[in-house]
Amino acid sequence: MKIAVVGTGYVGLVSGACFADVGIDVTCVDIDKKKIEKLKNGIMPIYEPGLEEIVIRNYKSGRLHFSTDLGEAIQGAEVAFIAVGTPPGQDGSADLKYVLAVADEIGRKMTDYLVVATKSTVPVTTGEKVRAAIQSALDKRGSNLPFAVASNPEFLKEGAAVEDFLRPDRIVIGIDDDRAEQIMQRLYKPFQLSGDRIIYMDIPSAEMTKYAANAMLATKISFMNDIANLCERVGADANMVRKGIGSDPRIGNKFIYPGVGYGGSCFPKDVKAIIKTAKEYRYELKVLQAVEEVNNAQKFVLADKVKAHFGETLRGMTFAMWGLSFKPNTDDMREAPAAVIIDELRAAGAQVKAYDPVAMEEAKAHYIFDKVTYCKDAYEALVDADALLLVTEWSEFRIPSWDVVGKLLKNKVVFDGRNIYDKKYLESMGFTHYGIGSK
Ligand code: UDX
Fold it and tell me: Is NAD given among the entry's keywords (predicted)?
């Protein structure tokens, strides 16, 4: 079986490599020549555990190909996945120009029946727009080639993308064509999912499922951050409350960790986009508007605690920051709370010394440039720093040598943005510990 995957971002590259790994002949296509050349040489555009290995292995075995030529890639392919970016436009809605440009090119270049499946997160009704773009390109050629569109949203998490793809909780496929459904069935067969974990539905429902899933997860986080902020005020401990409510299986113990707010490429963008879609249909998603509002405010909470401890003016002070990426095991800095915290500290006159195991190159190149001093390891960041801020819960920060931390810091104060440290233990070591959601 042969397929093409257009777009070699997180979703496209991971999907392409994983499909190849189960024996499918995959061509990954991108317009970025440099990126394609690098991939051919085994250089990954992103950091993702396990990805490099799987890409190199399948490229060498000849099952995974990289190309800038979409026309060639879809020759003989049964499915073409669209996995290009849908960046938020100025008004928060997902910008479909890349998706529709690919659809148009597919229409211009396809030579046989093809299933065109969208993996990018796209607003409801995009399936119809993709269909129209392909049909109009075919019409211009005077061609009546048959084709089908499908929506096959991707639920993988950064940092665990390969694992999530190879062992998914479920696969959602929006489809309205029997022949296409059979092809998709064959494609996903190697993943050996029991029948009810592949969920077929109509295309708009599949498109909506992706937004509803991310919006629900974002809601859990904002809800918990809101409760955590109240816990601090009334003298309760959000960590205990989390355990207390999470043991109810109807609530569940996942995604209820209070912190410095959610970031990344999906939650902020998708929450904005679904609010926007609702507005277009004259409906107000009040819960999600609040979810967004709470999250925006949550990114300021850690810097506010620093100011509450040291005073509004932090002039002449230096803070050590552990972690920059929006979450561990990724170099992704998109919408990272670290960027907001750094701006806040700097605006109050402080300097920041930062260390992140993998995201520093990304931070330097695209996001916070020279706003911080980048350090070669976690301890170097502490030298001459007034206090430590833990922003991303990378494993290597979990059990530091507190003796060394205490000696290097000017003040034994820790602002723990992810509640990974044991307050009582730190206090017994002479530290002042500020978590999220407790006094
Ligand atoms: C998310 C979805 O999980 C995934 O299914 C979808 O395909 C894309 O969006 P991702 O953005 O990679 O994946 O990260 P995720 O692990 O979900 O974390 C998102 C953010 O929420 C991070 O900033 C994380 O720190 C934060 N978070 C998560 C919390 O603050 N508390 C929690 O309890 C869980």
Answer: yes
Lookup: tokens for 173: 């496929």
d(CA 243, CA 265): 28
What lies within 8 Å, CB to CB, of 250 at 6+ separation is none
Catalytic entry in 18, 28, 231, 266: 266
Q: Which atom of ligand 1 is nearest to the CA of 256?
A: 33
Q: How far is the CA of 262 from the centre of ligand 1 (A)?
A: 7
Q: Provide the residue ranges of all domains of the chain, joining segments of one domain with +.
A: 2-201, 211-297, 299-434
CATH number listed for the domain at residues 2-201 = 3.40.50.720
**Distance (Å, rounded) from C-alpha 13 to C-alpha 2?**
16
Other C-beta atoms closer than 10 Å to the C-beta of 202 total 13
Query: What is the third-level CATH fold of 299-434?
Result: Rossmann fold (3.40.50)
Average pLDDT of the chain is 96
Q: How many CB atoms lie within 10 A of CB 29?
A: 28
Tell which residue, 415, 373, 424, has the closest CA to residue 397. 415
> Has domain 211-297 been given CATH number 2.70.210.12?
no
- What number is the average pLDDT over the span 313-340? 97
Please report the atom of ligand 1 found closest to the CA of residue 254.
33
Q: What is the ipTM of this complex?
A: 0.93
Q: Is 266 a catalytic residue?
A: yes
pLDDT tens-digit series, residues 76-86: 999 999 999 99
């067969």: which residue's tokens?
189
State the amino acid at position 201 in one-letter form.
Answer: M
pLDDT above 70: residue 195: no
Rounded (5°) CA angle 260-263-267: 125
**Structure token pair of residue 384:** 């001459």
Query: Smallest Cα–Cα separation from 231: which of 220, 242, 221?
Result: 242
Q: What percent of the chain has pLDDT over 70?
A: 99
